[in-house]
Amino acid sequence: MTPAAILAAAMKPYQKAAFADLIARAGVPKTSAWRARAGAHGRPTRAEHHLKLCAVLGIDPVDGHAISPRPPAPLIAAFFACAVKGNRFLKGHNIRHAAKEMGISSTSLSRIENGDVRSFDCMWAACRYVGGHPFDYVTRETSPETRRADAA
Fold it and tell me: Are the beta carbons of 11 and 20 closer than 8 angstroms?
């Protein structure tokens, strides 16, 4: 099953009020949530929205295994871009060769390397190339209480 299909299956049981609550907790636009719930037929779900929905649902964004639910956190696109581009340079690949190895277009790879991570499928392909997990590239949101405790 693809990551989009896994997320869609996890969202299917949520109806009306529960679905609205899920959208609010994840902090994603309604259109993105509806698209993800439909399995992204035709238009892929934005990577950041996919990751936020998975975090709130408590599922791994890649394989769908249960994880402890966490607050939704933003994707650090610049950090991810550096990881992909740096890894490509270390491997000695040009953009076309790396994109072919990832199974995405060179345009998509160029967007990723410029900090524009659009679809989760492209992000997952780049993560496999780099050897990381998509959750490695999101911030860890902390509450004010946690920040105070860390500072002490």
Answer: no
Nearest to 3 by CA among 66, 60, 52: 60
Q: How far apart are CA 79 and CA 22, in angstroms?
A: 27
Q: Rounded to whole angstroms, how far apart are CA atoms 58 and 62?
A: 12
Q: Is 99 exposed, middle or buried (0-12, 13-18, 19+ CB in 10 A)?
A: buried
Predicted model pTM: 0.87
pLDDT, mean of each 10-residue run, the chain (152 residues): 90 94 96 86 84 96 93 94 97 98 97 95 96 92 50 49
Exposure letters 65-82 (e unless 16+ CB within 10 A, then b): eeeeeeebbebbbeebbe
Asked if 116 and 126 count as a contact pair (C-beta separation under 8 A), the reply is no
Which residue's entry shows tokens 């410029």? 114
